[in-house]
Amino acid sequence: MNTSSQGSPIPTDVWDQQEMRDALARREISSVYRLLRRHGVSQRQIAALTGQSQSEVSEILKGRQVMAYDVLTRIAVGLGVPRGYMGLAYDETTAVRVAASADPPHPEEDESVKRRKFLAHAAAVTVGAAVFGADSGSWVSHPTQTPAPTQTPAPGRIGMTDVRQVEAATRALRALDYQYGGGSCRDAVVAQLSWGQQMLGASSTDVVRQRLYVALADLHNLAGWTSFDTGLMDSARNHFGQALDLAKQGENEALMANILYRMGRVYLHQNAPDDALKVFQLGQLAAQNSGSELAVGILCANEAWAYAKMGSDEQALKLLGRARDEFSRANVAEAPAWAKFFNEIDLSSMIGTVHTELAQTVDAKYTRTAIPALSKAINNFGDEYARSRSFNLTSMAINHLLEGDIDHGAKVGRQAVDLSESLKSVRTKQRMEPLRQEAEKRRNNPEARELADRVARFTGADTAA
Predict the structure, then answer these.
(1) Residue 218 — φ and ψ, nearest 5°?
(2) Which of 54, 258, 302, 346 lies 20 to 30 Å from 15, alpha-carbon distance?
(3) Longest dimension (CA), the chain
(4) Residue 11, strand partner residues
(5) Residues 6 or more apart from 138 whose CB is under 8 A from it?
(6) What is the DSSP letter of 107?
(7) DSSP 423
(8) What are the backbone dihedrals phi and psi of residue 39, each rounded to the nearest 5 degrees, phi first?
(9) Most confident of 25-34, 118-127, 251-260
(10) Contact 191/240 with Cβ under 8 angstroms?
(11) Which parts of 272-385 fold into alpha helices (H)?
(12) How far apart (Å, rounded) are the C-alpha atoms in residues 416 and 425?
């Protein structure tokens, strides 16, 4: 038997043995405990490490399931399990073990397979199946990142003030993301999440714990969004999955809807509108269950975008109409922070975006609606929404090129690049690819040619010969 570290009775290599890794991935704690017993770890030692009574450990060994997120986290921390191995929070220990592992890597999964796995997990959570079932977490891909410094010890007991601090930090970091891009704050979000996640192991009242679930769900939601914005797709999927689980634990359907809307946007970005639509439709179920007109409206607008990408103008326009109706009934002032961004300006932005997509996939006539809607959004987005403004300038430039107003389209396109160069967002570069393509089609015009070359330099795309 290998020696254990720091006086622990558990061998140092036990967590990386395949049978144990499989049990951890399935969160089968009874199997984990049985494997530990094989390595000579007694029930009494397991109880002491996890803070459970010996009778609880005995019941688990006999097959009692462990479902609660906080209990799973406490077990992971107590035993020294890298929490990422259980699909919990990704932590520095997991990062070190994954980076240093001598095992051959698993074959890289196709992105479509990852999308289906996330969709299956999201469906299981949204329609009411057990959140922590046998396959829960199997879709998680562990991002590679530099290990963080040793964590500050978490308090033994938390109150509402501690939860409010998490919520305040999330609001502040979200504002940085909107203004400067995910690259400006993602590391801070992950660091805050590392601290907040430890709070799950602290004692609290039921009311505090439920609000903590929601606060951490939204922080994971922001971690997923900033990961997406910096091009870390597996990390985004991981965080959105954790967010969905925690929002379910916190019984907050409106937040579940928001998480699914954001994951659907990842799939739209990957040009997988059919998969995006499925995720949006799951989000729509949660939105309707929540009773939030704003949540329903956000999902309708994004479903419209998916249909536009698929060239279905009738469905896209129908859903845009419903989004307008739902928004007109919504009380934006009382909306939670994660949904409050969607105001009249953002609705105009979505109308312009959907019609831009239809102008490219169906008929250029849709530029006539896209341009005024985008103009309204561009003129009203303040400096705090610089990334949204850059997206809209890119769409506006595309519309002018489609209309044949090449000089003005090139001028707006240059404005989009100027603004995007100040942002730490991979997504702004990737969203410019359709603009580059439209400019390339008109390369005989010197303004279009200069724009195509400049966008190519900015995004790293190949220029035309």
Answers:
(1) -70, -35
(2) 54
(3) 79
(4) 4
(5) 25, 26, 87, 117
(6) P
(7) S
(8) -90, 10
(9) 251-260
(10) no
(11) 273-290, 293-309, 313-329, 337-340, 344-361, 367-380
(12) 13
